[in-house]
Amino acid sequence: MKKLISICVALFLLTIGCTAFASDFDFTPKVPKLAFKELDILPVVNAGDTLSLTLNLQNISNNTASDVIITPSFENTPLIYEQPIIMTLEKSLRARQNIDVSFSFKVSDNARSGVYAIPFKLQYNNIRDEAYENTQNIYFKVDKENIAPLMTVNNVVTSSAIVSPNSQFTLSFDLNNIGDLAAKDMKVTLSGLNKDEFIVTDSQDLQYVGTLQGKESKTITYPLTASENLTDGSHSLTIRLEYTDSQGENVTEEKNIYITNVNSSLVEDDGTGAGTPKVMIASYSTNPANIKAGDSILFTFNFTNTNTAKTIRNMKITINSSEEGAFMIAKGSNTFYIESMGPKESLSKSIELNVKQDLASKSYPINIRFDYEDSKGTNYNSDEVINLPVTEYSKLVINSVYVSEAYVNGSTSLSFDYINMGKATVSNLTASVEGDYTSVQPINYIGNLTAGTSDYYDIEVTPTKEGENFGTLVLSFEDSSGKIIEVRKEFSGFAMAEFVPNDVPSGDDSYMDPMPIEPEVKNVNTWVIVGSGIGTFLVTFLIVKLIATKIFRKKLENEI
């Protein structure tokens, strides 16, 4: 019997040991979670600047994160880097710990203004070397763009005060890059030369300039010889510019210049000594200045009789749009009549045009033809082409906004749906709120929305006062020309008084105990312990029963 009792005690102790042993094994997941603290102020930089970010990385879980690797992504951002930037933390980040990490990025010289998101991938392990990862966006804004290379030609002068037939002279002009970015591999070609006007003397019509930095100017000179058949009046030449812009694209431009100081006695024409009368467009403008597809615009152009002596008569001006019917006459006729126009006289005409609504973003030509005659009835004509830049029609509509009821200073959901009713893709769409509501994330990046499609989105907002709260949802996007456009819609919602537990004075946060940090090794899985105890008990019961049965049978045999 004593032997039986000893066995039972041993099995009982074994049961307790198994239970304690099972409690030392933690089968619950040890999942750490890392996140950057949201920035209070949106970083703002200019194109070409350096973006410096100091981010606070927090472990918002009760479990240690080790082998932390931080990798920013540069896709769809105007950031430049020589090689991928990867940051590895030397130390583990324990539960509820935080650390500052710093990054520095170069913003592209060609960056367009707008808000951009940098996705940061966070990779880390738990204490069991199990791998986890998550991605978080950090936003920044490019405020000021750099102006692409933009060429102008001015200060056109000749070395001789008077240019006469058979004379040699030097033509010079200033080539200016009034943009912010450099024009590379610049080549200048003087065209429009012919044997009856001007030819290049002992030189080439093409000159290599090289790089023309932003805001830089260079003087270009050509030695020319005037033809013996040169006539008085204004003579035009064309400067052809070829260069590579800051994005590596090849650009070709043409600029017209005029030589007006010609004095010739070779022309016998009504005793004035004047040559062929010419009409030239001196300037033009549109109202509004920025043309959008679907607009109505007032197009105004100024033109000049460049001849110094001749009057032109019976002038007919015809305006046509030569490509895709981009511009249509809003009212009236597309022709003007001018009875006479004296030497060096300038006039101005205006016409109202409708811009076709489905145009893509680019420049569209307007053809202007001048038909006229001189005092002897000789007919002349000239054609001018004006290219007007048009931006695609953009229209983003917010259909509805709904905000859920909440407590003051407690987060709630703001839901809205929107549709792109324009003809162009809406790019870099972001959402923010103003008024009595604050957004948990100041800038919410949504992405792109193609023409004719709709979508919906939710953001977290916080009401700031009890009762009725009023706010404005602001959707910001880029049109096809890169211009930032905002769409606004007002909304309202109700907020209850800030929740405070019973018997706690208002404003007293002492009841908010910090979240306890659970031991990372001693967590006990209740079901494991219970199962282990039951299993051990059943085994003990069976063993005791078998031993008792054996003893009873042996005793019975002895008695028999």
The CATH H-level homologous superfamily of the largest domain: Immunoglobulins
Largest sheet: 5 strands, mixed
Q: How many distinct helices? A: 2
Please state the average pLDDT score: 81
The helicity comes to 10-25%
Helix-and-strand structural type: mainly beta
What is the correct CATH architecture of the largest domain? Sandwich
* Overall geometry: elongated
The tally of domains stands at: 5
The percentage of residues in β strands lies in over 45%
Rounded to the nearest angstrom, the distance between the terminal CA atoms is 20 Å
The third-level CATH topology of the largest domain is Immunoglobulin-like
Report the radius of gyration as a whole number of Å: 41 Å
Please provide the count of β strands: 35
Output the CATH class name of the largest domain.
Mainly Beta
Low-confidence stretches: 265-273, 503-524
Explain what the structure shows:
- With 560 residues, the protein is mainly beta.
- It folds into five domains: 61 residues; 109 residues, Immunoglobulins (Immunoglobulin-like, Sandwich), CATH 2.60.40.10; 119 residues, Immunoglobulin-like; 113 residues, Immunoglobulin-like (Sandwich); 101 residues, Immunoglobulin-like, CATH 2.60.40.10.
- It is built from two helices and 35 strands.
- The strands form eight sheets. A five-stranded mixed sheet has the order 2-9-8-4-6, with no helix packed on it. The chain has a five-stranded mixed sheet with strand order 19-26-25-21-23, with no helix packed on it.
- A hairpin with a 5-residue loop joins strand 34 and strand 35.
- Helix 1 packs antiparallel against helix 2.
- The longest helix is centred in the last third of the chain and has 34 residues.
- The chain is elongated.
- About 6% of the residues have low confidence.
